[in-house]
């Protein structure tokens, strides 16, 4: 699950940097400074407190509904708690914004807009028709995007998401596979929840629909947070990566980052066979010899009292936290 406030990125993969993209960049940089949290440690403490309090309340009240034909109503993490125990979750989908964790706290996604129901899995990178996911994410203004049924989408080119969008997969099994992935560039307020993305491959680029009234030229695509070590604006990028499953097909460090400050908790990493790709840049459950290199100030924890620290749990519990995040590998 991914909650994004702002991700400004260098001219990465933009082969034709025209007025449309220059305007998106300027707006993104302005929003970046508004959203920037100068005290990341405080954000981490808030995240930890919320996580502990939510799970404690859940286990005390045992508010778990029985399984139904709509799927298991089981709370395995704080984000699940926003909807899995709500018998009217389909009517209350937008309550998901109340559970945006970490740096993404306050993300609204498409809350202020109408519902858009995607009905067609066919993708056309340059000429998306109504009813497709690409048509939905390139519309101007906020939209809460859902799906009429379970489907698998093979993207022709990277899917470029515009600001104020929620891709809400609850109630269906949605997969993006055997193709390129999703690009969130120069935008704000994006929520992607419950989407299975796997077997992603690079593409050569070309003409791609990147706005309601704009068709842009893109170069080859890849996946990372932060475009370049030389782009200083990315130093203020703040990302929360929580409750995800990084599985098969990984070919470099997990996740791939450049500048950002990252909060990472409750993620599961299944490392590939190549040693150089086993490095994990965040904390979680490491499988197949994935490893975390030491970094940061080793005495930082001494700055906080015991009441500010979150009691750790064994990483073997991570699979339960991310039980519904992607397919098991």
Automatic annotation (TrEMBL):
Keyword list, A-Z: Calcium, Glycoprotein, Lyase, Metal-binding, Signal
InterPro entries for this protein: AmbAllergen, Pec_lyase, Pec_lyase_N, Pectin_lyas_fold, Pectin_lyase_fold/virulence, PEL
EC number: 4.2.2.2
Annotated family: Belongs to the polysaccharide lyase 1 family.
Metabolic or biological pathway: Glycan metabolism; pectin degradation; 2-dehydro-3-deoxy-D-gluconate from pectin: step 2/5
Lineage: Eukaryota, Viridiplantae, Streptophyta, Embryophyta, Tracheophyta
Cofactor binding note: Binds 1 Ca(2+) ion. Required for its activity.
A Pfam family: Pec_lyase_N
Keyword Signal annotated: yes
Catalytic reaction annotation: Eliminative cleavage of (1->4)-alpha-D-galacturonan to give oligosaccharides with 4-deoxy-alpha-D-galact-4-enuronosyl groups at their non-reducing ends
GO MF entries: metal ion binding; pectate lyase activity
SUPFAM superfamilies listed in its UniProt record: Pectin lyase-like (SSF51126)
Protein's recorded name: Pectate lyase
SMART domains: Amb_all
Biological process according to GO: pectin catabolic process
Sequence ranges assigned to domain Pectate lyase in this UniProt record: 150-275
Transmembrane helix keyword on record: no
Cofactor (UniProt): Ca(2+)
Organism whose genome encodes this protein: Gossypium armourianum
